[in-house]
Design a protein that fits this description.
Elements lengths: L3 H4 L12 H10 L11 E5 L5 H9 L4 E6 L2 H14 L4 E5 L14 E6 L8 H14 E12 L3 H16 L5 H15 L8 H14 L3 H8 L9 H10 L2 E6 L20 H16 L3 E8 L17 E4 L2 E2 L5 E3 L2 E3 L4 H12 L5 E2 L7 H12 L3 E4 L14 E2 L1 H8 L4 E3 L5 E3 L3 H9 L6 H5 L7 H13 L3 E2 L1
Parallel strand pairs: 1-2, 1-4, 2-3, 4-5
Antiparallel strand pairs: 5-7, 6-7, 8-12, 8-13, 9-10, 10-11, 14-17, 15-16
């Protein structure tokens, strides 16, 4: 069956919020006991070529990762890469969401991911998606469902109506995209006297121009575009035996929790949901990343920072000369100098994880770390780093990375579930040569074009970017 994704391939992407480690941490914050992600059963629904899933599976040979999509071309691409990478723990299939339930036994997956699907399919497929999650999620499982949400969806609906009018009867994808960009570039320009709503729409047009062509084609111009309110999504989940846990997005991790010692309601589940829905309208929310658990689970809705003490931390916060911290364009102050120094040391460790207990030693410090986590200034992990900080004497680049390089990919998936562009021919050849069968000296002499005396440093830098296996 030919789909629009066969005509215009969706770009290779990983989405960090879907990572089972992140979902596990959200469950642990609620006092739950999620399955160890490194040994979990993971299902990705409608994952395209499933590079997001394979990037997860490449770090954890003991997990079992299953993914499917309706696009035969996308699954063929993913299957080819998985085979060349030797990812024996990955299984991909061409499947219709509406028929997928018969493929998988009940409660057979510990983490279920449905990213970029729920708001872009017809009603019956959306129902089938939630029914599949309710069927497949294990007793201790965590599910992730992302979707364009309300009330921001109203703004996107207006933009979509404009764009559909602009493209009219144009059939060719390239011509559609060109017409869309021409319109957006003109519409995004502010005009004197613009009313508030028009200014908001122009800002949305400007944001849309930043998206890749394929994303514009599928996300904005696709046949289906159905933003959902959080209330409707949670109700759909409850209908198949699921319970709202919280949200995986920035500044949303604590949506499923209540400030203070005790809930202010006899029904804390309803209390956090009402507050989250109200916040959506206050913030004009455009996108939600909702985490679910089984309805039998009993999340503790109180915020208890002590629960993060057993976790591990990474951060990209950089200490400045004036003592403040910067991350991207954000600047923040951490008045507690002991904590500030500990975070500075953690940042110096790069992608190597540091125990939270070695950074925060008081309840107040733990609460600061929890807030930094909610705001995405630090990331929390349930286990130590699964990749080395330096190459061994028989250095091995991740097999997934070598398979992507062999296939000519420029954007490759790192072992920390990120993307990294590698264009330099010499570096690509070096990473291919480091396949675990050659000693460091043999890799240095493998004819990749990098001077032998620089090879160890180059591979150490690659390890620091999560490209190397132990």
């Amino acid at each position: 069956m030919t789909t629009p994704y066969d005509r215009v391939a969706y770009p290779t992407a990983v989405f960090s919020q879907t990572h089972p480690e992140r979902l596990a941490v959200l469950a642990m914050l609620a006092g739950l006991d999620p399955v160890d992600p490194a040994r979990a059963r993971i299902l990705e629904i409608g994952g395209g070529d499933c590079m997001n899933l394979m990037s997860i599976a490449a770090s954890w040979p003991d997990c079992q990762a299953h993914g499917f999509d309706l696009s035969e071309a996308a699954i063929a691409r993913g299957s080819d890469i998985a085979a060349r990478a030797g990812l024996g723990n990955v299984s991909l299939a061409v499947e219709d969401i509406c028929a997928a339930q018969s493929r998988y036994p009940a409660r057979s997956f510990d983490y279920v991911i449905a990213h970029g699907v729920y708001a872009w399919v017809p009603d019956h497929v959306r129902r089938a998606t939630m029914e599949l999650i309710g069927h497949a999620l294990s007793d201790r499982g965590v599910a992730f469902v992302s979707y364009n949400c309300m009330p921001g969806g109203h703004i996107r609906h207006i933009m979509r109506e404009m764009l559909l009018n602009v493209i009219g009867d144009i059939e060719d994808p390239d011509e559609k995209i060109a017409a869309t960009r021409d319109f957006l570039e003109d519409y995004a320009k502010p005009r004197d006297g613009d009313p508030l709503l028009t200014r908001t729409l122009r800002e949305q047009a400007e944001a849309m121009l930043e998206r890749p062509d394929a994303v514009l084609f599928h996300d904005e111009l696709g046949d289906c575009f159905n933003p959902q309110s959080l209330a409707v999504v949670v109700a759909a989940g409850e209908g198949v035996g699921l319970k709202f846990l919280t949200d995986a997005g920035r500044n949303r991790h604590l949506d499923g929790f209540i400030e203070g010692e005790e809930p202010g309601s006899a029904d804390p589940d309803a209390q956090v949901l009402r507050a989250a829905i109200r916040a959506d309208y206050v913030a004009m929310r455009y996108f939600r990343q909702t985490a679910f658990v089984r309805g039998e689970q009993q999340p503790d809705r109180r915020i208890d920072a002590n629960r993060i003490a057993t976790l591990y931390l990474t951060t990209k916060l950089q200490r400045q000369e004036d003592g403040s911290f910067m991350m991207g364009k954000d600047s923040l102050e951490i008045p507690d100098e002991e904590l500030a120094l500990a975070l500075e040391r953690a940042a110096a460790a790069g992608l190597q994880r540091v125990r939270v207990a070695d950074i925060a030693t008081t309840p107040l410090q733990l609460r600061v770390i929890l807030q930094l986590y909610a705001e995405w200034y630090v990331n929390l992990h349930p286990a130590p780093t699964p990749f080395p900080d330096r190459p061994g004497e028989y250095p091995q680049t991740s097999p997934l990375i070598r398979a992507m390089l062999e296939g000519g990919e420029r954007m490759i998936c790192t072992l920390d579930h990120g993307l990294l562009k590698i264009d330099q021919p010499e570096l690509r050849a070096l990473l291919m040569a480091a396949d675990g069968t050659r000693s460091m000296a043999e890799v240095a002499d493998a004819g990749h074009g990098i001077p032998p005396e620089e090879v160890r440093d180059a591979l150490t830098a690659a390890a620091a970017r999560a490209l190397m296996r132990a």
